[in-house]
Write a structure and sequence with these properties.
Structural class: alpha/beta
Strand content: 15-25%
Strand order of the largest sheet: 5-6-9-13
Mean pLDDT: 94
Radius of gyration: 20 Å
Distance between the termini: 29 Å
Shape: globular
Order of helices and strands: EEEHEHEHHEEEHEEHEEHHEEHEEHH
Oligomer: single chain
Number of helices: 11
Number of strands: 16
Length: about 325
């Protein structure tokens, strides 16, 4: 059992996502594991929280791909919305001292199509703006945005109404080694892998880019995410009842095309890809303003943009 400062770590997962079983085998001798579905196993979740009364609960479970939510919105709702409510109710009933941090999404701000964009050679920029604060208006779109957004709001409301120590982190792109990605989710790792495969196959394996590839996100390395969550434990009372945008910030922003250009330079070859239709409700540009979390607990990303990408490339 993994012990840090005499603490025990419990993990709940239904192992449905691609790659989750690989992570389980890496951790199985270091944690206490329960194979539950947070959406369907309400009684099991309640019994577990009632029994262990966790000091801290990181709610990272969820259906994470916007494209998958369009294909199966019911499963998306059960997992993201109902599953979250099941966890909140269990804490409210049986473990009121538990600190909860919910991993929400920048998709709660919608597709942001009402903004004016400047189309540069390799990326989009927003006119008179470079990032988004927590004051950005909520505008749920797609089943994924609706399910994550409703859960996001339940967490904040429970914190206020029931006086519980709950916090929402609205994440932008998270990436890093051992991210078991697929075509629909984990784009940094996916493109790194496609480039490596393409170089080895001598350009036989052609890959696709949705839209024009100038879409921009701020990316955050998993090592920085881990440090954030550990710091959130230490300063939990400064975060209670609050929402924070969590990402790499403008210095760690990159477009799909910019990523491809960097990988071409790093791998020393010209890639072969084609463009397909843009994804429905995709944001052309999203970069987190992270001043609020910095001011609250003095956290900022330490892994630079290209150092982080290099770590993923090395693992491919």
């Amino acid at each position: 059992m993994l012990k840090t400062n005499n603490s025990r770590i419990f993990i709940v997962d239904n192992l449905s996502r691609q790659g989750s079983k690989k992570n389980f085998h890496l951790l199985k001798n270091k944690v206490v594991f329960f194979k539950y579905n947070i959406g369907f196993d309400k009684k099991k979740i309640e019994d577990l929280i009632k029994r262990i009364k966790p000091d801290h609960l990181f709610h990272l479970a969820g259906q994470v791909a916007m494209s998958n939510s369009l294909l199966d919105p019911y499963n998306d709702f059960i997992t993201n919305s109902l599953g979250t409510l099941n966890i909140l109710e269990a804490i409210r009933k049986y473990s009121k001292k538990t600190q909860l941090i919910y991993a929400s999404s920048n998709k709660v701000y919608g597709d942001l199509k009402n903004l004016k964009y400047k189309k540069k050679k390799f990326r989009y920029e927003i006119i008179k703006k470079k990032d988004f604060s927590e004051e950005t208006s909520l505008n749920f779109s797609t089943p994924y945005g609706c399910s994550k957004g409703s859960a996001d709001q339940y967490v904040i409301d429970y914190s206020k109404i029931y006086n519980l120590n709950f916090t929402v982190f609205r994440h932008s792109t998270i990436y890093g080694p051992k991210q078991f990605f697929d075509y629909n989710q984990g784009w940094i790792s996916w493109f790194c892998k496609q480039m490596v495969i393409q170089k080895k196959s001598k350009l036989i394996n052609k890959f696709s880019i949705s839209g024009d590839g100038k879409q921009v996100r701020d990316i955050l390395h998993i090592d920085d995410v881990v440090q954030l969550y550990l710091r959130a434990i230490k300063y939990k009372n400064k975060l209670s009842g609050e929402v924070f945008n969590i990402g790499g910030g403008y210095p760690n922003s990159i477009s799909v095309i910019e990523l491809i250009k960097y990988l071409e330079k790093k791998l020393k070859f010209k890639s072969n890809y084609h463009h397909i239709k843009e994804r429905r409700s995709d944001q052309k540009y999203f970069v987190c303003n992270i001043k609020k979390i910095k001011n609250a607990i003095n956290w900022t990303p330490k892994i630079s943009l290209y150092k982080g990408i290099d770590s993923v490339l090395k693992a491919c």
